[in-house]
Amino acid sequence: MRVFLLSLVLLVSSCASLVQVEYDEKTDFSEYTSFNFYPSLESGLPETENEYVIQILDSLMQQKGFIKSETPRLYVNFFVTETEFSDQNGYYLEQELIVDFVDVAKDRLAWQGVINGRFEDGVSLQQLWNYYGLLIEKILNEYPPKS
Fold first, then answer.
1. What is the pLDDT along the chain (147 residues), one digit of tens a residue?
2. How far is CA 33 from CA 28, 67, 72, 81, 123, in A?
3. CATH fold for the domain made of 2-140
4. How far apart are CA 95 and CA 81, in angstroms?
5. Which residues contact 42 (CB under 8 A, 6 or more apart)?
6. Which of 34, 88, 107, 123 could form a disulfide with 127 if both were Cys (CB 3.0 to 4.6 A apart)?
7. Peptide bond just before 144 cis, omega within 30 deg
8. Is the pTM of this model over 0.85?
């Protein structure tokens, strides 16, 4: 029970991270109505976590009004850098999750959101799903950029 509660605390505290956003201020984001995932996606995540992120991004993008298309205006790309560390409380994995929206026609980055999070070794698959869901939701709350 203690491990579960500690994991939940870490999960929630990791999602308190600020989202860093980069984009070209001249971009008209209303032009982007369709998406698909970058054809050669290399996230750096294990297969299960990679699938979680794809499913969560797919769902949240559609909730934001995007249409998934074979001829999209945006490619969605994501990748994670990870750092392992331990302290007196256990072993942790700290991550930087980066989500890119690439303008397909111009072949350039249109928007990028970055957030940091961490979780304790041994979390359940459901906790990983919740962790990625919270991080991705927080990132996508910053899109489109507010003028």
1. 444 434 444 454 444 579 999 998 999 999 999 999 999 999 999 999 999 999 999 999 999 999 999 999 999 999 999 999 898 888 999 999 999 999 999 999 999 999 999 988 889 999 999 999 999 999 999 999 986
2. 11, 6, 8, 29, 36
3. Double Stranded RNA Binding Domain (3.30.160)
4. 6
5. 79
6. 123
7. yes
8. yes
Residue 51, both tokens: 């699938």
Q: Check: CB of residue 56 under 8 Å from CB of residue 133.
A: yes
- Two tokens, residue 5: 């509660």
Query: What is the DSSP code string of the chain?
Result: -HHHHHHHHHHHHHTTSPPEEEE-TT--GGG--EEEE-TT---SS-HHHHHHHHHHHHHHHHHTT-EE-SS-SEEEEEEEEEEEEEETTEEEEEEEEEEEEEETTTTEEEEEEEEEEEEETT--HHHHHHHHHHHHHHHHTT-SPP-
Show the tokens assigned to 55. Answer: 């499913």
Tokens 């989202």 correspond to 19
Residue 26 CB-half CA count within 13 A = 1
Query: Domain segments of the chain: what residues?
Result: 2-140
Tokens of 24: 């070209």
